[in-house]
Amino acid sequence: xxxxxxxxxxxxxxxxxxxxxxxxxxxxxxxxxxxxxxxxxxxxxxxxxxxxxxxxxxxxxxxxxxxxxxxxxxxxxxxxxxxxxxxxxxxxxxxxxxxxxxxxxxxxxxxxxxxxxxxxxxxxxxxxxxxxxxxxxxxxxxxxxxxxxxxxxxxxxxxxxxxxxxxxxxxxxxxxxxxxxxxxxxxxxxxxxxxxxxxxxxxxxxxxxxxxxxxxxxxx
Length: 220
What we know:
This protein is an alpha+beta fold. About 25% of the residues lie in helices and about 55% in strands. It has an eight-stranded antiparallel β-barrel.
């Protein structure tokens, strides 16, 4: 009788172990099915695609962010008024006019810029007024905080002076070196102040001129 009782106990233990294994397999299969329903056939591709779709706009925003941290594009277009003190033995005049420039930031600190300045002065001959045009391009450096961006540039190009004087060309080489500051008033717009040293080569000589101006900058 003892042998029969021991055999019954062994049978019950083996049956319980078999049932536990089947239950474990069933639970694992259920979890695998639920995981596939949630993430699809390839969970890693779902997660990677989600991360890529979320990171793409962030990367694009960082790429186009303005160097001073303002969240605008890398292009700038400015327009304003300027004053040029033109000094030479032949023509000496205080002039006022316009200053237009465009620039592109190739990195957080460095960019390229082109500027066009006009200046108009007093009458020096019979119905002849002083007229000066300066067109220059060159490198630009920017530094500063989000609200105020400071910058400097060195530009070189061409200048044109009226009126015509005997034996002299009305066109000459020019260099503009200086800098300024842009104060951010709202997203995409700044107020600018700047001052420059302007060197021209009219009348077979060199002229050391001064330029100062104020303007509005559009960032895009």
